[in-house]
Amino acid sequence: MSIDRIHISERGRHELIVLKRRTGLRQWNHLCRWALCVSLADPTTPPDVDLGATGVELTWQTFGGAEADIYEAMFRMRCHRDGVDPADRSRIFHLHLHRGIARLYAVKEVRSMADFIEVARKLCSHG
């Protein structure tokens, strides 16, 4: 995969901090994995927005962990379906990640890990 480092914007960082507090999850990468899945489940293309300055940086291996190949395959399948130029994959990945983070953050009713899982499952099933 051509994505070695994952950059999370300052806004995304703030949203992840709030999600960590709401869910009790300690690791950025766990939340980011859920966020990617939420966005990939949405059949629409994420809006092409300026993500701004980097607030947090993760390596691909930290992001994906033992399941890195699965996340890569899911993302590549989506890129193929959407006709994404390989040169644009990194940008599209970051747009998906940030859209997913924003969607999870927007659900204010999340007050526990159980709430978070239920919300994420609902968001993932709409696609």
UniProtKB/TrEMBL annotation:
Matches recorded under InterPro entries: DNA_S_DndE (IPR014969), DndE_sf (IPR038472)
Name by which UniProt lists this protein: DNA sulfur modification protein DndE
